[in-house]
Amino acid sequence: MQGTVDGFSYGLVTPLVAYFMACLGGALGLRCTTRSMLVTHSWRPGWLALGSAAIGSGIWTMHFVAMMGFTVREAPIHYDKPTTYASLGVAIVMVGVGIFIVGYRGARGTALFTGGTITGLGVASMHYLGMAGMRLNGKLEYNTLTVGASVVIAVVAATAALWAAGQVRGFAWSVGASLVMGLAVSGMHYTGMAALSVHLHGTAEPGSGDSHASLLAPMLIGPLAFLLLAGVVVMFDPLMVMGKPDWRPVENKPGVPARSAVRHPHAHSAPLSRQAGQHDHSSARTPQNR
Predict the structure, then answer these.
(1) What's the pLDDT tens digit per position in 114-154?
(2) Phi and psi at residue 199, in whole multiples of 5°?
(3) What is the pTM of this model?
(4) Which of 20, 87, 95, 159 allows an S-S link to 130, with CB 3.0 to 4.6 Å?
């Protein structure tokens, strides 16, 4: 028996809220990625890790907000907790790999292609693993071509978002990149859902697992609290909006004494090469003057 699938049981509410969550996670994560390219290597892993967690939390929350509007008319839907939360871990890890590649190798060439591909595959893996956590009195079936199209959308849009984030041209570029990332996640999700069909079993026994209501609180409160915290970190970092590097000369860093510059009396009028020669010559005469 074929089930009647409805992905928009609440109208446009769940798609719009889901897209907002994807954009929020993308904005924070991609801005952290941009920030990592403006700091010294000692701070870079922290910013990239924060960005990975923000994007992973954003796309995971987007997926399950969208799934709130998904129903099968003839069967109740439940979720398996371990599989559901495993999809969050997969999202953070795979997105993190892609972001670390771009953060250390730059948003260009092979590094951009590799990082974008892994990030896009992370989005797709999160989606289909989350779908595997569904429990209902039936079997999920997918159209192979449509699934392939959803993966391509995720990879292409994720690559474009990482490229935009890697331009390091200010806050506006990161906002645009987050909109692209939100489009990647939402487009991948609803394309993947279009590939789904449900074949119901003859019996009417409900599947085991947790309902939408029992998963709602931990699903939304935890990731939303983290995104709020990440947002506070981003907002109160003065260089996040300015987009200027944090590279300072070693002599100006706290705890390192500055070296005094040796100036020749005629340095303001002599060419650079003559200044160097005069400095060496005067240094050689110094012992004699003593």
Answers:
(1) 999 999 999 999 999 999 988 888 899 999 999 999 999 99
(2) -105, 110
(3) 0.74
(4) 87
